[in-house]
Specification:
Length: 267
Amino acid sequence: MEIKSSLIISTYNWPEALNLVLLSVKDQYILPKEVIIADDGSGDATKELIDSFKQDFPVPLIHVWHEDKGFRLAEIRNKAISSVTSDYVIQVDGDTVLHKHFINDHLRAAEKGFFISGSRVLVDKIGTENAQKNFKINFHFLSKNIKNRLNTLRIPFLSPYFEKKTYNLEKASSTVRGCNMSFWLNDLKQTNGYCVEMTGWGFEDWELSARLINSGLGKKRIKFGAILFHQYHELHEKSGININEELYNITIREKLIICKNGIQKLE
């Protein structure tokens, strides 16, 4: 049965990076049903960019925004999830570039009872600046200015043999990449989505993944597929990380499935 997907892209005040993500979405071999921008309070430049893409974007492009009150990624992702109209959710960051078969690979690997985590290729500072200047979205194994080069390899016939499934709570949750994940929408709703008490950078993806595992799901890791390139930026400011880490540890210790403040808070 054909799966319809919604792609959520989180962003904050970096339209040059978001421009590349949206260009790479337009180039997808299989398009999502809709694209939802989860905007954590960006200014007018981001809105203007999104509005310009809406003029000829091949699928509905939805801009979900809230006021800038600091790092509230968990909350804006929940608001985007609440807007989803398909059964499957693919999640990326607004400073990435998607391989042409990115959506295709996530849908191929989608399986009931699992959520998916993919890897990333790091583009260095010079490579990122050149890509943004020249609207470059086609990276490959021989590209200059990249790291984790083996992660550029897409080998569809090998990918299923290298998928790793795990139900190990700490291993599964602490190895996810929030910039490259996918879920069944119903699984997100049953665990109440992201914990909005997590403000500031860090651990929000780990904590959600821990609750998904506690609910009985497994994590599937994709290799040789779902390739994503991560644009360079300075390290995030880490205020609040100790609180977020403690919330994550509580979820681990108490085997929580549902967070108190999540998607349901918005409904």
